[in-house]
Amino acid sequence: MRANDWQDPQWRESAHSWIRATLDGLGTPVTGEIEQTRVRPWSVTHKAPTAAGFRWFKANITDCAYEAGLVGALAQWAPDSVLTPLAVDASRGWLLTADLGPTLREALPGDREARLRGWREMLRAYGELQRTLAPKAQAMTALGVPDMRPQVLPERLRAMLTEITVDGGVDVTTYGEWCAELAADGVPASLQHDDLHDDNVFPGNRFFDWGDAAVAHPFGCLLVALQSAQFFFETTPAELAALRDAYIDVWSDLGPPEKLRRSAVLACHVGRVAKAAAWQRALRDAALPVDDDFRTAAAYYLAEIPKPTPVS
Fold first, then answer.
1. Can you give the residue ranges of the Aminoglycoside phosphotransferase domain (predicted)?
2. Residues of 222-238 as b/e, b for ≥16 C-beta within 10 angstroms?
């Protein structure tokens, strides 16, 4: 049996046995069929009914399996800000969590200002979580969370360019200069979600889904967050700037607004390497066949490095 094969009946039975035994031990036994609800080449989710509500099981492929140990640690470090697990098997990258209901995206009303207000509050809350977690950066890398701090990104980029062809190439010198400037800005490295949007957080700003996360310059979270805001409700440039400012206000004691805004731009530029690396991890030893759109994602993000960021 492969460690990662979501379709293998033997793997599925092993996972379901763990789910049942774990929930029996917690006093909430499974009351019906365990159902596969979401399957990707890099992860799979199953839903188990119990008398206390649904329980959710998640498994990651080997290169993303650090999520399980990370979630266990986050539950200790910031229990009010994350989806805390019911059980973790860090060696296999397995998680079991309770059902907290609709995500923030599902819960927010359709009114545009209400949605923007929810996003501003979400970004502020995430910045506050990052500040709480900054002293844990070394502990997180010890758990296997990838190190994508600005100091190491130039080497990460050079290594990726030996494997990935990028149309037009990449200006490695300029990239290194951006990383050096960002590393010297006084903002400490912390947990960079790398897939931060309103469908990966519950109302009350409890964050989850850490399979892409890395220890990095915290402002890199704005890349996906602001792109998602653009995509899902066509934010204007002024609205995007307000979202950015709501986030960086959490860091206002570390520099004037113009300096922090400059760091936000740089973090989005250089963070595209971290995003490309996340795609590499997600597809290496994938559990299922990989679509071309996924397979080319790393090259896409490397090609995007010099292009405008969501805010400037």
1. 93-252
2. bbbbbebbeeeeebeee
Cα gap 2→265, rounded to integer Å: 42
Neighbours of 25 (CB within 10 A): 10
8-state DSSP, 193: -
288 contact partners, CB below 8 Å, separation of at least 6: 6, 7, 39, 40, 41
Structural domain spans, the chain: 9-98, 104-304
The CATH number of 9-98 is 3.30.200
Instruction: Count other Cβ atoms within 10 Å, centred on residue 295.
Output: 14
Q: Which CATH number fits domain 104-304: 3.90.1200, 2.30.30, 3.30.70, 3.30.460?
A: 3.90.1200
Q: Nearest CA to 5 among 198, 217, 286?
A: 286
Distances (CA, A) of 134 to 22, 60, 69, 80, 109: 32, 25, 17, 17, 33
224/274 Cα distance (integer angstroms):
12
Give, in order, the Cα–Cα distances in Å from 99 to each of 31, 66, 75. Answer: 15, 22, 16
Two structure tokens written together for 290 = 């990989």
Structure confidence by residue, pLDDT tens digits, 52-105? 999 999 999 999 999 999 999 999 999 999 999 999 999 999 999 999 999 999
Global pTM exceeds 0.85: yes
Q: pLDDT digits over 129-180, tens only?
A: 999 999 999 999 999 999 999 999 999 999 999 999 998 889 999 999 999 9
- C-alpha angle 289-232-282 in degrees, rounded to nearest 5: 25
The packing angle between helices 153-161 and 172-183, to 10°, is 160
Task: Please state, in angstroms and rounded to a whole number, the distance separating the CA atoms of residues 250 and 127.
Answer: 6
